[in-house]
Amino acid sequence: MLEFIALFLLSKLLTKSLLKLFLRITKSDKIAISLLVFLFFPGTVVHEMAHFLSAGLLLVKTGKMELFPKVTGEEIRLGSVEVAKTDPFRRTIIGVAPLLLGLTVIFGSLYYLQVYHVSNISIISLLLYVIFTVGNTLFSSKKDLEGVLEFFLAVALLTAAFFVIKLAVLQIVLQILQRNEVVNFFKTADLFILAPIFLDLGIIFFARILSGEKLIDS
In b/e form, how buried is each residue of 100-127, taking b as 16+ CB within 10 angstroms? Predict the structure, then answer.
């Protein structure tokens, strides 16, 4: 959980640092935003396709898909998909779909590098770029998460009932979670999610140096 919070905060800081760097280099808001969009374009495609595909699988109507930015105040939205109103359960799944698909792409890329001992620099660079761009477009916007609160309240009530009525089932689940294979899986997942975090830290460091910013805000 702490890793996800760190990645979320770093992705916001990274976007601001890179935008300042691009502005300093190009002296143009339009060109700077275009460079930022181009850099994160693969991640934007994965993010919006996750919304689109999950909505389709759940039989929720979708409208226009935008893969290009919209600037509202100080916020830059890299993409969007129009999704019809639906129940909180399906809305929640559609909202968090980019996180699930993005993590699958990141874990898959790192698994491929680890298992096949890839030594080709081009392939390594490509996969690291995929991890970077997808890792920084994982998180949903406020609009994407509409209905999530209602869903989790319902889940909380059902969970409370489950604890009261089916305590024995919960004990079985806990026993499964304590198995070595499951524990090892989550340990490996923790290590994998560190990859985009370290990539962000390195890029933020160099972006701030090149743009003349202080490394630590005072």
Answer: ebbbebbbebbeebeeeeeeeeeeeeeb
Contacts of residue 68, defined as CB under 8 A and 6 or more positions apart, other chains included, come to 37, 79
Task: For residue range 40-77, list pLDDT tens digits in order.
Answer: 999 999 999 999 999 999 999 998 888 776 666 556 67
**pTM for this structure?**
0.70
**What's the domain count of the chain?**
1
Angle at 201 between CA 184 and CA 125, to 5 degrees: 75
Tokens of 163: 């604890």
Look at residues 51, 46, 49, 23 and name the one whose alpha carbon lies nearest to residue 36: 23
Task: With respect to residue 217, please indicate whether it lies within any of the assigned structural domains.
Answer: no
- Which domain range does residue 49 map to? 2-211
